Sequence to fold (264 residues):
Amino acid sequence: RAPRTATSVASSCTARRRHPKPPRHRAFSHTAQSADSSNRAFQVMPTLVDGLALLAAAILGYQVLSFAQLLYRTIIRPAKNPRKYGKWAVVTGATDGIGKAMAFELARRGCSVMLISRSADKLAAVKAELSEKYPNVEVACEAVEFSSLTETRRSQVAEVLDKLEVGVLVNNVGMSYPFCQWFHELSDSEVSNLLSINIDSTTWMTRAVLPGMLRRKSGAVVNLSSAAAQSPLPLLAQVKRRPDADADADDGDDAPLLPAFTAS
Ligand SMILES: NC(=O)c1ccc[n+]([C@@H]2O[C@H](COP(=O)([O-])OP(=O)(O)OC[C@H]3O[C@@H](n4cnc5c(N)ncnc54)[C@H](OP(=O)(O)O)[C@@H]3O)[C@@H](O)[C@H]2O)c1
Fold:
């Protein structure tokens, strides 16, 4: 072996510098690589986290706004004066429950009230009750069976209503079923009644008052519905009206007048 001179040591150092030794431990090299990739991941992560945070904020903002709008529409917004739409208010299913309460409230606010329901004796009783409580209010009634509304009866009702200055129509009559069932489990007569009483009644009653409202350029149609109408529910094959399908003819509101139908 040749003795190592100063020149040979210097040249070997230069060679080492030109060709650096490969890393002695493979594990060390892996650690360096993974650190590098996690650094890159950390650079990507903030963008992803920011994006998710933005998405969450947008969803939350939408929910808060929707809730605020609901509060405004149901509680805060000042009540409209039903009398300004016209002299008469027509309420279907007016002999019981919500319909009866609506009839009394509309009378309290100065509207003449047309009560529509199926039982003539109950109609007479509610008419007497209303007249006693609000002697200055005109009350009329019409017995209509909405589960079997014939074309002839429909035209008769439309004729009666056309002679009145109907400002407000409350499409209140409606039914659900006694317990939850799948849509295919309902009997044909139940489906038929749900359609006639919930959907057909709303459609034909709205058609009956609409020409007069359009002539006078004033009117409001209020459709009663279940909160379940907001979203389809299994086991409640809902046949339902849209609760928001009310329109003010004089406001030029273009809300849909016709009922919606959902079966689930
Ligand atoms: N009450 C609730 O918890 C609730 C919940 C969600 C939605 N709703 C909706 O709100 C509206 C009113 O409900 P409600 O509980 O107040 O009703 P309700 O107390 O059962 O009163 C129903 C009214 O509709 C009349 N009616 C029923 N079937 C009829 C038919 N085939 N033809 C003509 N009139 C008929 C009834 O007349 P008779 O008196 O002669 O039977 C009665 O005046 C309905 O559209 C209902 O779907 C109610």
Residues 93-99, 117-119, 122, 144-147, 172-174, 176, 197, 224, 226 surround NAP (CB under 6 Å).
